């Protein structure tokens, strides 16, 4: 399966899943994308102390924090980014995941969950460098694709 086919299949699964299915998928995926080990690579000079605290709190409470509270944490994070380029990839992944999750919570838009799925695929790609022509050739990428399919297809309409 090439990358464009993977994207199309994920979109199809998200569109076809029930509300409960997309919610479960979103919760599991955002939790995976804000895991503590992703934040370990952040250099001291990338974020202010306030931004680092907000990021840590938002990641730790991602499933219990309200959309408004998450919005406030994201404002603190964005205001506290000290570098213009070169933000640690793990930190960038976590911030992006939080932003998509916040938007999903606020507006219930499935396209935000599609973006979470793509961030999750990209996170695996950072580890294994998948082949664009055979994206599922590595066991790690195949497992992530199967996780996405299982969560979305098991509760499909």
Give the end-to-end Cα distance, rounded to a whole number of Å: 24 Å
- The rounded Rg comes to 16 Å
Average pLDDT rating: 91
- Main β-sheet, in a few words? none
Class from secondary-structure proportions: mainly alpha
Q: Count of helices?
A: 7
Number of domains: 1
Low-confidence region ranges: none
* SSE topology string: HHHHHHH
Basic shape = globular
Kindly estimate the percentage of residues that lie in beta strands according to DSSP.
under 5%
Helix content: 55-70%
Number of DSSP E strands? 0
Protein name: DUF892 family protein
Topology:
Blueprint: H1 3-16, H2 19-33, H3 49-60, H4 67-79, H5 89-107, H6 110-128, H7 139-153
Helix pairs in contact: 1-6, 1-7, 2-6, 2-7, 3-4, 4-5, 5-6, 6-7
Protein name: DUF892 family protein
């Amino acid at each position: 399966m090439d990358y464009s086919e993977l994207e199309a299949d994920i979109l199809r699964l998200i569109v076809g899943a029930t509300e409960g299915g997309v919610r479960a998928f979103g919760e599991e995926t955002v939790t995976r994308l804000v895991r503590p080990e992703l934040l370990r690579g952040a250099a001291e000079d990338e974020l202010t102390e306030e931004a680092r605290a907000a990021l840590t709190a938002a990641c730790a409470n991602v499933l219990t924090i309200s959309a408004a509270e998450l919005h406030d944490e994201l404002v603190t994070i964005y205001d506290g980014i000290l570098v213009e380029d070169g933000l640690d990839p793990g930190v960038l992944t976590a911030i992006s995941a939080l932003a998509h999750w916040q938007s999903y919570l606020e507006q219930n838009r499935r396209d935000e969950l599609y973006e979470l799925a793509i961030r999750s695929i990209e996170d695996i790609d950072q580890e294994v460098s998948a082949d664009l022509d055979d994206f599922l050739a590595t066991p790690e990428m195949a497992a992530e694709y199967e996780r996405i399919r299982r969560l979305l297809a098991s509760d499909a309409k």
